[in-house]
Structures
1.
Amino acid sequence: MNKILVHICCGVDAVYALRKLKEDYPDAHIEGYFYDPNIHPEEEYILRWIETERVCNQIGIKCHLAPYELDRWLETVKGLENEPERGKRCTVCHDIRLEKTAQFAKEKGFDSITTVLMMSPKKDFDVLKTVGKQVAEKYGLEFLATDFRKNGGIEKMNRLSKEAQLYHQNYCGCMYALFQQRKGEFVPELVSFGRGRLPGSREEKLFIKKVRLYAESLGLPCYEQSFSFVSWRLISSTLKINKEPVSHAVVWFSKSTKGVLRDRVQEIVEENDRFIVKLKKSFVKIWILREPLREIPLDFPRFTTEPILIVGNDLRERFEPGTRLEIQLKAQFDENGESQNLIVGKKEAEKTVEFHSDTLADGSGGVDIENVLSAISENRKAILTGNKKVVIYGAKTVGNIGKYYFNNSFINV
């Protein structure tokens, strides 16, 4: 029996290609091999692996996860950083991935290799075919050059990936290709903001996908509700008291200052849980907590606000009328922010176990994934009978947007 090892780069490219291979080679033993050292950052690598694993589980194909080897890729493509898409860097990148696949195939007794890269309309089929055959021959293997795009393959891929609610990446993984596409612009895909799972971030999506993978492995129905919102990211901030930098946080959706703001304290107003510092010339405010410094989530959605900084109770004595302050804040707003709710079970189930997927930037205010997985496992029977559902809401820290969307949506699950 022919044994085929399939190099896989992502779930989207694999969702139809694997089905096509099973159709073309019904008597073959097929396994997957996920290896993409070009992907950056590592969280993106893991996210694409999880979606690949979901696809392989649905089809009944075993898939192997190769180690993340970004350093090896960077060294191999050194000197080709400015090559265009489909240029020499891409050829070398194909060679790295197929070489690793062929090595694994030879070790494990496979006869043939192929790659779902031939599914992507952004890849050069002829280059892949040439590289694939050269690598396969080197290891005494056959390379299956299947053009998955023929006969409506792209349309079938799009339909299947939509049905499976797969994560659609917006770049191949290569940082150099992304730099060229954005032409000097800020590239948020390559940056992690804080130590937590910010609403709308890759880390939040990764949390949801991990939970879904586990729930589906238990045979539970899952559905993701995606929703858009205006997202906000803190790029940098500075607070100095009499020229001395002090620790602080920033309230979500605070606007940027126009350069460095120099002002003095005008008055301090006492409220129930904090003191409010007002300045003489600007609308910037500072909240002094009655407790140690912490970030504060929003109870309801906000779209923009004057800059508000937060300090802990240890700095209360430092703020007096006339105190000199220096403030600088740079934030980014994005009207294309997107998060999602995950519903495990039927939406109309009477009882609901609720969690949320996001955290504050420092990682606080979140839920440990093990608690979510345990709840799903403990309630499996009730979920299957339709008596209970588990819902993980997105974007809680910016005003419970996910829960609001869930409660006011009319999507049939």
2.
Amino acid sequence: MSKRLVILGAGESGVGTAILGRQKGYDVFVSDGGAVKEKYQEELNKYGIAWEANQHTEEKILNADEVMKSPGIPEKNELVKKIRKKGIPVISEIEFAYRYKGNSKIIGITGSNGKTTTTSLMYHICKTAGFDCALVGNIGYSFAKQIAEDPKEWYVAEISSFQLDDIHTFRPDVAILTNISEDHLDRYDYRFENYIHSKFRIAENQTEQDYFIYCADDPVTMQYLEKYSIKSNPLPFSMSKELPQGGFIRNGQMTVTVDDERMQMNVNDFTLKGKHNQNNTMAASLGGVTVGIRKEKIRVAVQTFESLAHRMEPVSTIRGVEFINDSKATNVNSTWYALESMERPTILILGGVDKGNDYSILTDLIREKVKAIVCLGTDNRKIHEAFKNDVQLMVNTASAEEAVKAAFHFASPGDTVLLSPACASFDLFKNYEDRGDQFKQAVREL
């Protein structure tokens, strides 16, 4: 009898797992409580996989040998509770994919901020070095589907805390933890510690042969590091102190040391600007050295990397006013990094679905750099409460177009309009990409 694999959620990770499961001889059933995108319907049908949409048929789910739960489904979901109560093992997509990776190697990247940039740069370094590699995980392409349809020797995987929650054996050869700040607390019973524990799981199965790269300047990481028995080789990186192993920046010079390999590079040669990106570049460069990539190749990759859409993306300058799209800033810490890199008077577009945000960390930067706040969300009370004494101008808007017009109205030549919302986007937009695209469109129409 083939094992019954039930998959909750027919998005990228769910459909990828279904394809790999089918290929490996499982009896696969996919169930989605909402609508299923047409492209995913076509893929499921192409492989002859049974699926349902807009419902969960319990008798077809609770007879599973194993359940793959998509990262978007919370533990407090009633169906998940029933699955747990029956003792059916629940795994994540990266756990399932890991079983079938063969001899390939994995560089796994997680963190509250900077993980997408670090993952993309890490992939660019591997490609520049001529590695047979794929970019997978939270960044857009399913790890399981990649293994099923086009296996590679190397996988560079962006991994969210939700994906780490349901791992058992998943073990990256190189793990990168960029930093930890309060995010997604609504999913972790509003206990920061639960979220921290999820992030550290990236290193829990590592052995003495593996590497763990982390930020020595991040107070949360350093406070909790000792609490976990991590067996892999530690490689910290820092902007504040010189390190014999790992990475540091001193007087504008990056030094990266792994065992006997050492590389140096001037930060002015990085295509990624801003202090937070110096950390991301150190992390990815360390990753490159650990997997044996030559210094020259890493240097070329760091100098040729193009920044990402929706992450501090310059849109346009109109009548002396610069517009920047940082829609991917879905938590307060991301917005802090964005504001920290601002060198001109700023009109900040802020707001959306609040995930239990504490805005107080932004207060000093807002007083110092922000002329006006344009709120973009259905409920902006918390933002008004937080900053009513710090800026003179604050308005509510209900669309990207309204927000852009209001911001442009407040701006003078030489100012910057920054969309860096600090919140999720689901109240007015499909996702952060949609929010960023609508912002860019509205800027073009000014």
3.
Amino acid sequence: MAICFTIERKRLYFKLASMPYQKEKYFNEVCSVTNARSLLMPVYKEWEGILDGYREKVVKLGKTQTLTLDLIKTYLTGAETNGEVSKSFVGVWESIIAKMKKEDRVGTAENYQWALNSFLKYAGDVKGFKVDKNVIDKWNDVMKNGTIENGRLVGQIADATRGMYLRTCRVVWNECIRQGYLTEDKYPFSNKDNTLISIPRGKRRQQSYLNVDEMTQLYNVFVEKCYPDSWSPDYKKRAHQSLGLFLAQYLCNGFNLADAGRLQYNRTYFAEGGRAFEFMRKKTSARSNSMSVVIVPIIEPLKVILDEIAAKPEKDAYVFPQIFNGATDELTRRKLTVQENSNIKDRMIRICSEVLGWDKVVSGTWARHSFATNLKLAGVEELYISESMGHSQGNDVTSGYQDMYPLEIRFRNNSKLLNVETKEEPIDIDKLSKKEMKELLKRMMEKGGI
């Protein structure tokens, strides 16, 4: 029993391994049956259903690809077509990585490559599209429990990393479904169905933050430069720079170093008289619309930090040129960012321990968590926090954000990040639009101001 595919008079016979051999007479009788009461009608319906199933697969494949017999063979058997490297599960994975590199998404591409390296090492020899739940299960088991090689345990990784790798694999699987190489009925991932592969989530990070009082203590260390006498002058200078960058990350809406390195004194900075930064998050710029910008009010403590560690304001100049040190290649920038993150972590741990007596392993990610957590605890609405951090909200929501939150409101909210007495930025009523005025009145009424 086989299915015959014909394109331009050329044929491909695909043998149905699950079907038993049939005698020619019986085969012809089943194919010619017309009477609904015939005992052979159920067999006819079964065979017809198999044929329709393959027809649907080919129709779906033809919607995304130019149909050829080689392509159909690749889809049905999982065998790679000579010269068509991309016609495989691994090939699709590699093409996604290549696309990300073209879009300068170097960090994400690197994560996808690490996941692929692990998959190739522990999932076995995967040819074409011969990948299913059993293959992913085998890989997942090694990542979770490890395997013994040369007498030692290898392959075991943290749940957070395992979850990242499995999510990467899921993206590749979905792309294969979109292109017609895999079918949805064999989808191996689910966090609800216990028979399928569950993708773990990383540990919750509620404790990975510093509260407002702790952040204020760090700010005071920066202002007073009260570092231990046992530190060399050179190390004090480097630690001061790292502390300043950490605090800048916190006060600049929790942005990461990749964003800090790209931050410029652009048109918005000068148009607002040096009172605000505007930028697009590097992580989301490739898939967000132009309205998903981040506005950072330069509150007084942030200005103090900028005066110490930032470059002088010049049109389109980088605010923190020391991060990339003039590098323009994205791969080099990625390596410099990773190194600077490591430097900040090491120096922050020493500042917390040797200056303030804290037992905390503080890293750059704490700045982002602290920004969100402290504003939330201060009663700032989550929509403002989300928008300020550059989270994607959809076109219907992001449009008009700048009208919803005039700069004066941003100053008022971000001033809650530190317990530092500063002059409150006055609201210039004459400069507010009708929409901004309406929003301001609404907020005052909600807070009992009217």
4.
Amino acid sequence: MSLAWILLVLSGMLEAVWATALDASKGFKRLWPSALFVVSYVASMAGLAWAMREIPVGTAYAVWVGIGAVLTAAWAMITRKDRATVLRVVLLLGLIACVVGLKAVS
């Protein structure tokens, strides 16, 4: 796996961090979650931008969003902020399959 793909995966993971921190900031009223949001957001965008130097924009963005969405939703279910249902888990597994498929055909 190339450095661009590694950075893309890490950036997608940071997307889940900033989304979760944004929720925890309660509308930017809490300092530390707000600070974590800013740092992880900037790092996530920088990694995405760097990865797009080698990976086509459509593929890079779809993989980045897919990773972030799956991790954010999974974390919300683990922490019981969202209900975990069989259908939600199946749909998240479908997203994972799509992300893997995009990598496979790239």
